[in-house]
């Protein structure tokens, strides 16, 4: 059974329009971006020249929160789902609130979820990782065993191949949390998969791996041996602490740059073979149906992509004048080399500023500062990666793939900024 | 311990430095051997060539009874899908249309995947409770619903399952984005006057608005997340 607390019920979101009206009426007295929506009452006794109540009385003591949590004023920064999208919450998805996050690291409690059989709650003492098949010595490892292997740390983004999948036929969802929120980026700690395979001893005809989850979906995907021996990891920690149950506690596979479905969570078994298995998740799903009726399979790498997270429909504009535009870019084929921003729907572009670490197969933060006159804008961002791949327009992508390929929609996103500061998800030509 | 600690350290460093090199590293002697019984209990995967199929047999006629009891509440009496639960039958000839219907019969390339998936994950909420015989019968029934098997008493077993072919097998091909979509590797994108005229809005989420707080009835008919 999944713990209902792991997937918070989204509170009924405030009407965007009503919120905007209030905040603009306050003469722009509220903050913006990640801190929007916590407007103080204008006549507060906590505002200068008064002395705020928290400056006089004592606050809670240490360990009143043995495991810390965000301020109660940040209660709207949560994963959200679109309940009617799926028949059950056990086989469903929740989205990362990208518009409310800064930098490149996703907090552990906010990374999107995608489960096929709910969240397995696993007692680590009763978890085993079995490695067998085309190996010299089939292995049975406890968690303690896995932690005895040499460790590596690696920051990597994880994107579901179906991220933005609902936008193939046209603009649908008003908010980058919903259009682009099936991505997160954390630092993993674990063992190079190569070391585990060498411990078992690969036979010379070992060509493919089948990682399998211990959840009620027993998720399986075929992974080619080249990736397994390259940069794959078996991780037990994310952002310095044990994986969270919804992200595969106690063990998950990490395949940097490749579609999230393959990063098997609750990893219990790795079978080594000489051919792919063609599991349900690489035949019925995660294959790209093209207009001619043929279907592309084993589309592992995630194409370069970017999105403007602020401003965006859930994070409207509150001020004319100096404006910091912020967003994220990533590529499954390497580092981001350049991000450009357009204010006029893709006619003219200017280089954005990459800030913070620019890492291989990780989220990369970009900024573009400009003066907003109050005129309507058509905001776009375009990522280029170190292989020379340029994020395509949605039209170019559709020319190649039609409208029914569901996965790998990395087309350029357009946000329409209205004079009121409201923002809507649009398509342009 | 047969090796010097230094030797182990050097071997590990070599592996970590040359992550991609085929260095035949020494074993670290961590963990224990998995026993044949342990492997047997978890080794449930099945391949298109039939490798991994357990001994057993079933027919569509037997499968129908099991399906009505354990599957139909979600997937419908004839696999048509109840409500938003997945449909398992139909869709033949729709793959090139605007609304393709992808099922075991119309889309899936291999029968082995049906056996493998039904046994590992279905019924939803009671995974890995079906016996091999029940799984053969359910596989046969799904093939029967999709007109792949015409005789409901035809016995499907570990020897003949892999010989049954699905019509869409030939339409799958290996990822070729790097050649088919080569035009995206332009490296130097256009920076000025990239459109012949001012950009115009051609569609807005406001019209097709399915944002959670405003989901209309029509929007609820949108395709599910996959």
Automatic annotation (TrEMBL), chain A:
Gene3D superfamilies (UniProt xref): 2.60.40.650, Oxidoreductase, molybdopterin-binding domain
InterPro entries per record: Ig_E-set, MoCF_OxRdtse_dimer, Mopterin_OxRdtase_euk, OxRdtase_Mopterin-bd_dom, OxRdtase_Mopterin-bd_sf, Sulfite_DH_SoxC, TAT_signal
Principal EC category: oxidoreductase
GO MF term list: sulfite dehydrogenase activity
A Pfam family it matches: Mo-co_dimer
SUPFAM superfamilies: E set domains (SSF81296), Oxidoreductase molybdopterin-binding domain (SSF56524)
Domain of life, per lineage: Bacteria
Annotated ranges, domain Moybdenum cofactor oxidoreductase dimerisation: 297-413
Residue ranges of domain Oxidoreductase molybdopterin-binding in the record: 116-277
Cofactor(s) demanded: Mo-molybdopterin
EC number: 1.8.2.1
PANTHER family: SULFITE OXIDASE, MITOCHONDRIAL, SULFITE REDUCTASE
Record protein name field: Sulfite dehydrogenase
Organism this protein belongs to: Methylorubrum zatmanii
Gene name of the encoded protein: soxC
TrEMBL record, chain B:
Record keywords: Heme, Iron, Metal-binding, Signal
Top-level taxonomic group: Bacteria
Residues annotated as signal peptide: 1-25
PANTHER family given in the database record: ALCOHOL DEHYDROGENASE CYTOCHROME C SUBUNIT, BLL4482 PROTEIN-RELATED
Residue ranges constituting the Cytochrome c domain according to the UniProt record: 58-146
TM regions (residue ranges): none
Gene3D superfamilies (UniProt xref): Cytochrome c-like domain
InterPro entries registered for this protein in UniProt: Cyt_c-like_dom, Cyt_c-like_dom_sf, Cytochrome_c-type_DH
Keyword Signal part of the UniProt annotation: yes
Protein name: Sulfite oxidase cytochrome subunit (SoxD)
Any one GO molecular-function label of the UniProt entry: heme binding
Keyword Heme set for record: yes
Organism of this sequence: Methylorubrum extorquens (strain ATCC 14718 / DSM 1338 / JCM 2805 / NCIMB 9133 / AM1)
């Amino acid at each position: 059974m999944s713990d209902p607390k792991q997937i918070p019920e989204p509170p009924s979101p405030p009407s965007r329009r009503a919120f905007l009206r209030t905040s603009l009426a306050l003469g722009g007295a509220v903050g913006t971006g990640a801190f929007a929506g916590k407007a103080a009452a204008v006549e507060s006794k906590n505002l200068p020249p008064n002395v705020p109540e928290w400056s006089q009385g004592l606050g809670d003591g240490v360990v009143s929160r043995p495991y810390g949590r965000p301020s109660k004023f940040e209660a709207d920064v949560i994963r959200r789902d679109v309940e009617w999208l799926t028949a059950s919450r056990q086989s469903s998805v929740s989205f990362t609130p990208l518009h409310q996050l800064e930098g490149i690291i996703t907090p552990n409690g906010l990374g999107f979820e995608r489960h096929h059989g709910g969240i397995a709650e696993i007692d680590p003492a009763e978890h085993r990782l079995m490695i067998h098949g085309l190996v010299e010595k089939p292995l049975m490892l406890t968690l303690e065993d896995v932690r005895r292997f040499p460790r590596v740390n690696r920051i990597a983004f994880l994107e579901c191949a179906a991220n933005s999948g609902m936008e193939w036929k046209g603009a649908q969802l008003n908010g980058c949390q919903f259009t682009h929120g099936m991505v997160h980026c954390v630092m993993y700690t674990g063992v190079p998969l190569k070391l585990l395979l060498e411990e078992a001893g690969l036979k010379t005809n070992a060509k493919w791996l089948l990682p399998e989850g211990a959840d009620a979906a027993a998720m399986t995907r075929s992974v080619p041996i080249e990736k397994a021996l390259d940069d794959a990891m078996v991780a037990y920690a994310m952002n310095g602490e044990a994986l969270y149950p919804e992200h595969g506690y106690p063990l998950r596979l990490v395949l940097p740059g490749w579609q999230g479905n393959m990063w098997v969570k609750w990893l219990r078994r790795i079978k080594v073979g000489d051919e792919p298995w063609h599991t349900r998740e690489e035949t019925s799903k995660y294959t790209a149906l093209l207009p001619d009726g043929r279907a592309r399979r084993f589309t592992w790498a995630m194409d370069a992509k970017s999105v403007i997270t602020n401003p965006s429909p859930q994070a409207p504009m509150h001020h004319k004048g100096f404006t910091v535009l912020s967003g994220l870019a990533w590529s499954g084929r390497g580092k981001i080399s350049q991000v450009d921003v357009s204010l006029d729907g893709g006619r003219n572009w200017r280089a954005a500023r990459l800030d913070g670490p620019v890492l291989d197969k990780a989220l990369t933060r970009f900024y573009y500062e400009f003066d907003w006159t109050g005129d309507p804008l058509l905001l776009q961002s375009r990522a280029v990666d170190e292989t020379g791949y340029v994020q395509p327009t949605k039209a170019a992508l559709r020319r190649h793939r039609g409208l029914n390929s569901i996965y790998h929609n990395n087309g350029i996103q357009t946000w329409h900024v209205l004079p009121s500061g409201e923002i809507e998800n649009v398509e342009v030509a | 311990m047969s090796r010097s600690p230094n030797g182990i350290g050097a071997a590990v460093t070599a592996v970590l430095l040359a992550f991609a090199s085929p260095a035949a590293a020494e074993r670290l002697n961590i963990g224990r051997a998995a026993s044949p019984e342990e492997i047997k209990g978890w080794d449930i995967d099945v391949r298109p060539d039939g490798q991994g199929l357990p001994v057993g047999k079933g027919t569509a006629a037997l499968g129908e009874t099991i399906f009505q009891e354990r599957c139909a509440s979600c997937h419908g009496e004839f696999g048509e899908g109840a409500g938003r639960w997945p449909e398992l039958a139909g869709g033949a000839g729709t793959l090139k249309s605007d609304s393709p219907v992808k099922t075991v019969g119309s889309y899936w390339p291999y029968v082995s995947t049906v056996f493998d998936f039904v046994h590992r994950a279905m019924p939803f909420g009671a995974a890995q409770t079906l016996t091999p015989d029940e799984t053969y019968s359910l596989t046969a029934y799904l093939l029967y619903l999709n007109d792949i098997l015409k005789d409901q008493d035809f016995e499907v077993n570990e020897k003949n399952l892999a010989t049954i072919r699905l019509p869409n097998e030939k339409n799958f091909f290996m990822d070729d984005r790097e050649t088919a979509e080569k035009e995206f590797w332009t490296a130097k994108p256009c920076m000025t006057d990239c459109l012949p005229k001012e950009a115009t809005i051609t569609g807005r989420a406001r019209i097709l608005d399915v944002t959670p707080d405003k989901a209309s009835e029509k929007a609820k008919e949108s395709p599910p997340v996959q």
